[in-house]
Amino acid sequence: MEIHVLFGRHIRFLRQRAGLTQEKLAEAVRLSPVSISNIERGLYAPAFHRLPELARALGVTIHELFTFKEAGR
Q1: How far apart, in whole angstroms, are the C-alpha atoms of residue 30 and residue 20?
Q2: How confident is the model over 17-39, as pLDDT tens digits?
Q3: CA 4 → CA 19, 43, 46, 49, 51, distances in Å?
C-alpha cells in the first residue's frame, strides 16, 4: 500500500480520536478542508514543516509525534 494512503488513514484516525471535523482541523492548521480531505484520502502528504502543527492540533503524544513525523517522510 502506498505511504500516502497509510499516512492519510493515520491522520483520519487521529482526527476522529481528537473529535475534530475536517473543517475544524483545517482551521487549526490553516489548510483548506479540501486539503485535509485529500491528505486523508492519500492523494498527497502535507509539507514536512506542517507536521508539528498537525500533531499539536491532533493532540498526539511525544511517542506518536515521532511516529507521526516518520510516517510523513
Answers
A1: 14
A2: 999 999 999 999 999 999 999 99
A3: 22, 7, 10, 16, 14
Residue 64's contacts (CB-CB under 8 Å, 6 or more residues apart) are 14, 55
The string of pLDDT tens digits covering residues 40-68 is 999 988 888 888 899 999 999 756 765 75
Q: Which three cell numbers stand for residue 70?
A: 516518520
Q: Residue 20, Cβ neighbours under 10 Å: how many?
A: 18
- Rounded to two decimals, the pTM is 0.82
Q: Of 53, 54, 56, 49, give the one whose Cα is nearest residue 7.
A: 54
Integer Rg of the chain from CA:
11
Q: Distance between CA 13 and CA 54 in Å, rounded?
A: 13
